[in-house]
Write a structure and sequence with these properties.
This protein is α+β, with helices and mostly antiparallel strands. It has one domain (22-84). It contains 3 helices and 2 strands; from the N terminus they run αββαα. It has helices spanning 5-13, 58-62, 80-84, and strands at residues 28-34, 51-57. A two-stranded antiparallel ribbon has the order 1-2. The radius of gyration is 14 Å and the shape is globular. The relative contact order is 0.19.
Length: 85
Amino acid sequence: MPCSPYNVLSHLLNRDLVYPEVWGEWGGELLPFDQEEYFALSSHTYSMDDTGYVFVPAACASGDTMCILHVFFHGCDLEAEQVRA
C-alpha cells in the first residue's frame, strides 16, 4: 500500500474515499500548527518537525457535514514541503 494520508485513511475506514481530480476541488484550508507544545522535549528529539498541519474541509468547518478526525504522522520520506504542495 502506498504511504499517503489518502491510502492510509481508506485502509483504516475500509472503504474507498472520494479523491478529487484536482486538489482544490474539496475546498478548505491546510492550517499549520505548532507541535512543540505536545512534546516534553524538542520535537526534533522525536524526529518530528516544529510545525504540523491540519486540513479542514470547508463542509467540516461550516458544520454542514459530520466529519472524522484522522491523525497522520507523516513518514515514508514525506516532508512538509510535500504536504504544502
